[in-house]
Structure formats: C-alpha cells, structure tokens
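User: I'm designing a mutation panel for G-protein coupled receptors family 3 profile domain-containing protein and want to avoid disrupting the core. Could you give me a predicted structure to guide residue selection? Please restate the sequence first so the numbering is unambiguous.

Assistant: Good idea. Sequence first, for numbering, then the predicted structure tokens:
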Amino acid sequence: CRFYSSNYQYVLAFVFAIEEINRNPYLLPNISLGFDLYNALHSEKRTLESCLMWLSGLGKVIPNYSCVREGKSVAVTVGTTWAISAQMGTLLELYKYPQLTYGSFDPILSDRSQFPSIYQMAPRNTALALGMVRLMLHFGWTWVGLAISEDMKGIQFLWDLTGEMDKNGICVAFVEMIPITERAYFSLAWQYHYRIRDSSANVVVIYGDSDSLLGLSFSTWNILMTGKVWITTSQWDFVFSDSYSLLDSFHGTLTFSQSHKEIPGFKQFLQGVNPAKYPQDFYLTDCGKLESCPPNVSLESLPLHTFHMTTSDGSYYVYNAVHAVAQTLHELLFHLSEMQSPGHGEKPVVHPWQLHSILKRVQFNNSAGDQIILDQQATPVEEYDILNFWNFPDGLGLQVRVGHFVPLAPRDQDFSIHEELIDWAFEFKETPRSLCSKNCGPGFRQSPQEGKAACCFECTPCPEREISNDTDMKQCIKCLDDQYPNSKRDHCLPKVVTFLAYEDPVGMVLACAALSLSILTAVVLGVFVKHRDTPIVKANNRTLSYILLLSLILCFLCPLFFIGQPNTATCILQQMTFGVLFTVAVSTVLAKTITVVLAFKSTMPGMKMRQWLLSGAPNSIIPLCSLVQVTFGVVWMVIAPPFIDTDAHSEPTLLIMVCNKGSVIMFYIFLGYLGSLAMGSFTLAFLARSLPDTFNEAKFLTFSMLVFCSVWIAFLPVYNSTKGKFMVAVEVFSILASSAGLLVCIFAPKCYFILLKSERNILPGSRSKAKSR
C-alpha cells in the first residue's frame, strides 16, 4: 500500500486478521499464515519495481526469477487506487496470483477478460448517486457543484449522479474534472480552486480517492475553501491530513460510508499497538514526524488528523480479504488432503492458480456477522451511513453518524437523517441553502430564464383564477369551478352562490316593472270591456283585442319565472311560457292584421271576402300558430329539456345559478319561429297601413311589430355578449320591452280616443245624424 497515515490502519487490519486466523483452531489448523509488506508507490515504474522485488525474493528487480523455495505467497492484497491494482494486476496475472483489492469498487477492474485474477472486496456503489440525491432533496439543495476525478470510475459516477439529479430537478452548477495525469493537473491546478471557490453553489460533491491528484488539489488549498458544504465518500480520507489546519475547510462535511459493523476486538488491538509490542513498526518508532513522541506512545493518544480508532472502510475490506484467502486455503487444503493416498506424509503443495476456482464462489460470515460474497453479481445492494465531520482545536476531530440510507427500503423509509446532530461549516448559522435563484413563495410560479439551467428562474405571479400553495412550484394550480383565489393567490376560497334574486336591485326593478305592466294591461282590458260596444273597440274584432290583452298580461308575468332561485320546474316553465304566450300574442296581431285587410276587401265591388270575415277565419290563426310552437316545445322537452346549471366564469368570486337551455338549437328555433310570425305580421301590416278606413289600426300594428322585431334583433348580440345573471336580466328586459311595445303601440291610441276623445268614438254616419238633430 502507498504510505499515508490513513493506510497505516490498513496494515494493522492486515496484521490483526493474520493473528486472529492463526489463533483460530478451527481455521487452517496446524498452519500459520505469514505475510510480506511492500510499499507500492503511485508511479507505474515504482509499482512494477516493488512487484518484481517481491517476486524475486531477493529485494532486487530481477524479472522471471525467484529464489524463494518455501513460504511462497499464494495471494496478494492490493490497494488503494485502481491504477495500482491495474498495474500490478497485469504483471501478476502472468503468474496467476489472486489479487484482492481493498480500494473502492472500480468498473474497470471488474472486467474479467482483462483482469481475471482480481477480486474486489468493496461492493458496487450502485446506490451512491441515489443516496446523495436523496440528501440534496431533503435539504432542498438544487444548485450543486461537482469535483470529480477524471478517470473511468469518476466518469461513471458523474453519469449516474447527473442522471439522478436531472430526474429530481437538481441542477449542476459546475463540473470540475480533475485530471489524473500530473502534467495536465499542474497546468490548471489553481484554476480549479478559483472556479470552485467563486461558484454561487454552497454545496459541492467530491468524488475520488484522497491520495489521487484530486486529493492533492484540495490538500494545497488549506483553509481557503471555507464556506462550502462538502458531500463525499469514505474513500476521501481528508481526516488523515498531515496538518489539522486543513480540517477547517472540511468542518461540517457529510460523508457516505458503506454500512458495516465494527470488527470485534479490533479497537482493543489498536489501543494496544505501541513500539514495545511491535519494535519493527516503522510508523510509531519514527518519532521525528510527531511534535512530541513518548517512548511508549500508543495510537489512542495520537490526534485524529494523525490516526483515529474507528474501523475505516478500507480496513474492513482488508480484514475480509485476508479471511477470504484463509477460507479459500482451508477448503483447498481439505480437498487436496482427501485426494492424497493414505499414509502419504508430505503436506500438500498449494499453487496460487488453484485458489481461483474457490475464490470465485467463496461465501462466509465474518466475525462481525456480515455476509461476505466475492461474486459481485451476487453481492446485495449496499447500505450507507451518513457521517458528519466535527473539527475541534488541535485536530481533535470526530466523525458522527447522523443518517442512514437503505436503497431497498420503501420510499418513505429508505432515508433518515438527524438534523439536530449536524454541525455545519462555521460560516453557516443555520441549515445552508444552495440555490441558483431565490425560492418562489406561495402565489408565484417559476418562470424559466432563456439560456440558463432549469434551477435558475424568475418568480412570476400566478395568473387569474390560479394559485400556488407551495414554494418553487413550476405551474400554478387552477381553482375548482366553485372556488376562486384569494388576493395573495396562495389558496382557493369557496365562491358565494348567487342568482337573479328579488332582493337584487336589478331583480327588484324588473319584478316591479313586470307587475306594474301586467296591472296596467289589466286596466286597459277593463277599459275595453267597459266600452266594448263602442265603434273603436268593435271595429278590429274585440275578441282578438281581449285575447291579445290577456296574453300580454301573462307575458308581463312570465319574467317572474326568471327571477328568484332556479329549480327544475321554473327552468322548464321559463321557456315554455315565454314561447307559447308570445306566439299567442304575435299570432293575435297577425290575425288582427288579416282582419283589417279582409274588412277592407269585403267592401270592394266583386270581392267575396265578406264570408271569410263573417266565418271568423282569422281567429283560427291563433290556435294553429300556437300549436306549431307547442309542438316545438314538446320536442325540446323530450330531446334536451332545460336544467339547473351554474356559471362559474362570469364573476370571479361568485357562483351564479342559472337555467341552462338544454338545447341551444331548440331555443333559437323557438325564437326563429316567433321572429318569422313577427316579420309576417309586420310585412302584412306595412302593406295595409294606407287602407282608407276610419278605424284602421294597420299603422299601429305596423309600428308595434317594428318595435317588437327591433327589440328581439337587438336581443341576440346583447344576450350572447353577457354572462351569468345579466343574461337572465337581458332576456327578462327583452320580454318586458317587446310586450310593452305591443301594449303601447296598439292600445295607447285607442285608450286615448276612448277616454279623452269620446266624441270621435262613433261611426261617421252616426256623427252626421247627431249634427242634424
């Protein structure tokens, strides 16, 4: 292993496992394991030299030669970087040595065609990216920077992490790929530093080995990078720094460490390590590296940045690697002893290549109770502990477990974190925020900015009839039809139910007008009944006048069905009474017009119209025309009758109860038929307006139909342009106006003559006789 203070624990884990196996009477009985330690420097040339020195057995670089006759090694544990493992793996593959790596899992080394003799003890980090994204989502960090080693493992992690971030709406503030070659790194080293330091992102993910160039990059920045929240993995051993001043930069760091139990007895073993116990130990005896080093110094007395007593992931993998080899040797030796003939006293000879068939399928439970499987395809999905780094004076730091991530657990149970245990970087007085744009509060929505990431947006107020009741909503929510947004547009309020009521000013005016006009029409009818024998009443068929006046009384009362709270009965009666009563009124006007024409034609020589007039034929027009309109009404009621409906769009805060026409087509057929009768009456009356008759009311009929048609022609555009209860008011007003037009234009002149000009209410012959007398 490359020498760092962190790697010293790997050596001790290796020694601890060897001693534990040698004390176990049930594992490799009567056999003691030995070992050799070599320092693999982070240089291809130096790494290969170390391998050749080990293979030769002479401590010299002698290719293809070995002077070791007994006690040859049968397996190699390699770490910590993939580069060292790959370099050694290529050489050791020539000798078929099993190589068990204790660094983080690397997809390159899992290629069995290229590295068939390498076994990775670390599980795949398949859920690491998901776990980090769950952490970001928990704290609402949507603007995150990435600093990643530019190797195959880093590129794969970048692909996985950015994919998960995109799925969950988290944006990448920057990506700094730290080169793996020294030449490329040193040409841009400080540029990486400035870009990360000056970024607006307060959260940065670091992925890579601490003894890689990425680690060198951060180790040279000392305390210049404070004010950031670092998210990293346990392979980033920043705690083991040569200077505890670096730890200020990483105070508050959140580390994902693969969950595993503590190895029983390992901590006590570390506490007992001292120069007296291991005189050959190069670490503790080298007191020149320490400020003060007592003769009997122990690891427990060293500051955290120099050594800490918690089992690291690498040490855990080293321990399992040694036990995996021991388990394999135990099974292999048992198999070889069974194959030997009885009485054969020599010990079986073990060759490195013989271990592969067993290592590929070895499974066992270590002393901590964890199941160890070297087959990566059968390895269960890993779980993660989330650690928070606390830095105290003089390097007395502490890694505190603050959370846990279980990928296979249900969504609401897979992630847990205790925020009260987290100690953030010194610059943050509360939970840090990492956003490109400020949160859009309730009542606003995110509006993307062209050319920028999705997390960089402007806050736009919700449009009319829409709300947002949460922060950072991408779309506002429409209120239900019976609701409307409050002034802040952060929640919906129920609309007030309303209709054209008698209490409303408009409804009160229309109702009073309807009653007043109906009473006025009844008075006119009383006048006509009282003066029924006068010439002006008898001249134009007083029966038709009575029918017209009665129909107008009912027409004036018809709007009362439109005012007040609608129900099914009133909705049906509105249209039926309106259509039928107005048909009776207009057909009566048509009958009166025909009566005028027939009365004039019957006085002309040679015309045989008198019998039509005497037979009462014009009166039959009323039932015939009304029957047609009743037929239309019955069809309407059968196909799609009117029903109670609500208008939620006319008034923003009101829910208006109205009568839905049911079938708009039938409604306009009703009006169209009524309009055709009115146009027929108007045309006939217009042609008869100049007939010479003393009591000719053709002119009045013409003018009444002109008013009637004008009202309903104006009604159509006004009705279609209004909504809610004002539509009802327009329809009621049109009924009253058209009815009043008939009443005034036809009967006002006659009442004038009856009541004020009674001397003119006699026949011409009677007037001359009265004068002679």
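For picking mutation sites, this is relevant: Residues 5-122+263-272+305-338+351-373 form a domain with the Rossmann fold fold (CATH 3.40.50.2300). The mean pLDDT is 81.
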